[in-house]
Amino acid sequence: MASRPVIYIPDDAPVVMANSAAYAALQERADVRYWDTLPGPELVERIKDAEIVINIRSSCRFTAGIFDACPRLKLLSIWGTGTDHVDLAAAARHGVTITNTPGVAAIAIAEHCLMLMLAVARRIIDTDRAVRQGHWPRAQVAQMHGKTLGVIGLGAIGRQFARLGQAIGMNVITWTMNPKPELGFEHVKLDELYRRSDVVSLHLRLSEQTTGMVGREQFQMMKPSAIFINTARGPIVDEFAMLEALVSARIAGAGLDVFTVEPLPADSPIKGLPNVVLTPHSAGITPETLEAGLAMSIDNVWKWLATRS
């Protein structure tokens, strides 16, 4: 009888994996070394003997030093789409296969983008607070039907949000590094997208190419009435330039799920802005998405093991 694989899960905090049906199925087929706290500097100690690691949190960073210190590691299965917390070049040098779970959160994140856009446009947070305090505000708010939605990046999430924008009557324009005319969306130059859009929504991976690509120059191009949405990664945006644009009313508002530093620091000036709606990098966290993504991260392990048998 073949021995059961040993799988390490060093960073399930807050707990999602241990509560899932996928985890119960995993335990039936494998021996699991599991931690429900973030490891910090203890990561090497937790996985130094591991061949297979399932990574839950992007705050747990797999640097070149981690790969150097864990020579037995052969597979890093990531729950999530982003790989910006992994030194991919170092992984390749050490012969470590990296897998992720693309697409599983696309619907949830696109819905979250829609919620952020409407919450900013309709001033939902301020209005709710005012009503609870006994006021009855009648300020005019923005209508999105007939407005232009600019979608930057047409991966699974960008495509889904573009469709939602069309569904509520928005005119959708797009920019992507690799144009996809077969999707049926109008493709424009990036500068044109910034200038024409009433809502600019960011859907790119974080990389050397995209870090800081939305900065002062880009915010200067936007309409004073524009709303900026970011559910991608915080460092793609120059946060100081964004703050400057929001404080000066260079743009009308923003809906943000991601930040340069996460969790958002207690003294972050973003927290004091009345024209911003904030969520804690939670756009893709729904029961359906969690279960599907966790199951895929485990299935990626079985597929990898099958290639070695």
Provide structural commentary.
The protein is 35% helix and 15% strand. The chain is elongated and about 65 Å long. The protein has a 7-stranded parallel sheet, with helices on both faces. α5 (106-121) crosses α7 (156-167). The chain folds into 2 domains: 6-103 and 287-308, 3-Layer(aba) Sandwich (Rossmann fold), CATH 3.40.50.720; 106-278, NAD(P)-binding Rossmann-like Domain (Rossmann fold, 3-Layer(aba) Sandwich), CATH 3.40.50.720. The chain starts with 5 loop residues before the first strand and ends with a helix. With 309 residues, it is α/β, with parallel strands linked by helices.
Distance between the termini: 13 Å
Q: What percent strand?
A: 5-15%
Total number of distinct structural domains: 2
Q: What is the tally of beta strands?
A: 12
CATH class of the largest domain: Alpha Beta
| Whole-angstrom Rg | 21 Å
| Widest β-sheet, arrangement of strands | 8-7-6-9-10-11-12
Describe the main β-sheet briefly: 7 strands, parallel
Give the rounded overall mean pLDDT: 96
CATH-derived architecture of the largest domain: 3-Layer(aba) Sandwich
Counted by DSSP, the helix tally is: 11
Low-pLDDT residue spans:
none
Q: Give the helices and strands as they follow along the chain.
A: EHEHEHEHEHHEHEEHEHEHEEH
CATH topology-level name of the largest domain: Rossmann fold
Helix content: 25-40%
CATH H-level superfamily title of the largest domain: NAD(P)-binding Rossmann-like Domain
Secondary structure class reads alpha/beta
Q: Report the principal-axis shape.
A: elongated
